[in-house]
Amino acid sequence: MTEFVIARAADVGLPVVGTDAVFPVRRVYCIGRNYAAHTVEMGGDPDREEPFFFQKNAENLDPSGVFPYPHQSGDVHHEVEMAVAMAAGGRGLAVEDALDCVFGYALCLDMTRRDVQAKLKKQSRPWEAAKAFEHSAPVGPIHTVAHCGHPARGRITLSVNGTIRQDGDLDQMIWKVPEIIAYLSETFELAGGDVILTGTPSGVGAVERGDLVEIAIAGLGSHRVQVR
Predict the structure, then answer these.
(1) What is the pTM (predicted TM-score) of this model?
(2) CA-to-CA distance for 70 and 113, rounded, in angstroms?
């Protein structure tokens, strides 16, 4: 048995619908600007360009239903996304084989310190401080493939205090889930426990302390997050 020189950090586990067992998180990958309208909203070209990715930390995934507003930021934006939980992985996966590696799907938020991100962009610096801060990925329970299949279309929405702000459809993704998995596997060796955030539709905007955010995807139910 390996002896560690300091106390080992606790493993990150996400709840799974229909069981008391949890899904062990290994890594978190996020695709940027994967809905055409959001790409335009953020000043990009909606054509099918080569995808780009950034990462969050496993500990950023937070199923508690509470989002603590981060210090040193005054412009934090919501981005609703579908998360893909991987059961297996590998290198150089073929598009037609990619879905065989999926364990399930979940509702997720990619919370973004937009003021920090804007500053980092101007300085041509990495985005981690804007994207991978503590509690930056509120997440709902995972629905297994046996329960929900492989959602390829269906309404995806986000409301703040009962008012819908984001309203799109999964079929509006520029890069579809099997393509995302295959492309990622060319750069990284994917494995069971990886979680992939698949992008957000247009309508991103700021949240304030006290707001109640509700996200929903057809077939995956809804999830509420209180901003505190």
Answers:
(1) 0.95
(2) 8
